[in-house]
Design goal:
about 60% strand, 13-stranded antiparallel β-sheet, mainly beta
Length: about 220
């Protein structure tokens, strides 16, 4: 959506799996007509022995031009329970360049495929921010975290009263091993937005991961 002058927003999300609350996600973003900064953090809560520890903290800043986000830098610290990574990206135009981080992709990613990819923080904000009629269910964007390249698509739409659910896929497209792709190459994702009058506000997100299906509920 087009930038709103002097927007400052914090979002809290409750993450559920296996019929239980398993974690919390928090986002804080500030933007004006020409730039944005944002940070996010996730941590699991309780369930020792049921779910592997998963946590991350991410931050990004960038420009906004004609309603489009143009990342400049990204920092991420991610522990998936299987891999741990500390990464910094700096953008040369639309090309994300990894300037810190020890982990290499399992398979090389062509530079041409990386161009235009957004960092995880920027893309998370694009999905979870308030939408307008032009951006609702219109997302198809690649994401690069310094090691893996994916495409997130939310282009199918279903209406239910004053809510709309945008559905699509999370596709692994670069940097993965053959074993990882055999385990899961594509998974479904959906986001439900509620009409608040002027905008559509994200209230629920569903995603399927290696650990199983998860649902995020807006808390603020």
């Amino acid at each position: 959506m087009a930038a709103t002058p002097s927007l400052a927003e914090t979002q809290g999300w409750s993450v559920h799996a296996f019929g239980l609350k398993v974690g919390e996600l928090r986002l804080t973003v500030s933007e004006n007509a020409t730039s944005y900064t944002g940070s996010g953090g996730f941590r699991t809560t309780g369930l020792a022995g049921v779910l592997r520890r998963i946590r991350f903290s991410v931050s990004a800043r960038g420009r906004i031009s004609q309603g489009s986000y143009r990342p400049i830098t990204y920092d991420g610290s991610i522990d998936t329970g299987r891999r741990v990574s500390e990464t910094r990206l700096e953008y040369s135009g639309t090309l994300p360049v990894k300037v810190a981080g020890a982990q290499d992709p399992a398979t090389p990613i062509p530079e041409a495929d990386l161009r235009g990819a957004h960092d995880p923080m920027t893309l998370m904000w694009q999905v979870l921010q308030d939408q307008d009629a032009k951006t609702l269910c219109q997302l198809s964007q690649t994401q690069y975290d310094g090691t893996r390249l994916v495409r997130i698509t939310l282009t199918s739409r279903s209406n239910d009263g004053d809510s709309v659910t945008c559905s699509g896929t999370y596709d692994r497209i670069g940097g993965y091993s053959a074993e990882e792709l055999a385990e899961m190459k594509t998974s479904p994702i959906s986001v439900t937005y509620r009409n608040t009058g002027a905008t559509w506000r994200a209230t629920q997100l569903r995603v399927k991961t290696r650990h199983g299906s998860a649902t995020l509920y807006r808390q603020d």
